[in-house]
Amino acid sequence: MVVDPMSDADLDRLFQAFADATRRDIVRRVTVAEYSVSGLAALYAMSFAAVQKHVAVLERASLVTKEKRGREQIVRGNHEGLQNARRLLDEYEAIWRQRVVRIADILAEG
C-alpha cells in the first residue's frame, strides 16, 4: 500500500498539536469516548475559549473531528489522522533502526 507523504504544512500542524500536554490529553480522551467541548472544558483549569482553541488546533491537524449536535460541539478522535501520525513515527523509527544496524556493522568490521 502506497501512502501519500505528508506535506511540510501537515507535519507542522501535527507536531504543533502534539507539542502541548493539554492537547495530547484531549486526544487521549476523545479516542476513548466522544466529548462535547463544554464537557472537555469542565476537565481543565482553563477557560472554555482556551479549550476551544486547543480543539481547533487538533482539528486542523486532523487528529480530532468536531460535529455540531444540537447546541453542542461533539469532539471525537479521528482514526485516519492518528494512523497518519503513527505511520510517520514508524518511518522515523525505521530510519533510526537502519542507522543502528549500520553502526553495528561498522563496529563488527573493526
Main sheet makeup? 3 strands, antiparallel
Mean pLDDT: 94
Termini, distance in Å? 39 Å
- Rg value: 18 Å
What amount of the residues lies in strands? 5-15%
Cα shape: elongated
Helix content: 55-70%
Number of helices: 5
Ranges with pLDDT <50 over ≥5 residues?
A: none
Q: Structural class, please?
A: alpha+beta
Number of extended strands: 3
Order of helices and strands: HHEHHEEH
Q: Order of strands in the sheet with the most strands? A: 1-3-2
Question: How would you describe the overall organization of this protein?
Answer:
By secondary structure, the chain is of the alpha+beta class. Helix content is 65%, strand content 13%. The protein is built from five helices and three strands, in the order H-H-E-H-H-E-E-H. The chain has a three-stranded antiparallel beta sheet with strand order 1-3-2. Strand 2 (64-69) and strand 3 form a beta hairpin. Helix 1 (8-18) packs antiparallel against helix 4 and helix 2 packs across helix 4 (48-60). The model has no long low-confidence stretch (mean pLDDT 94).
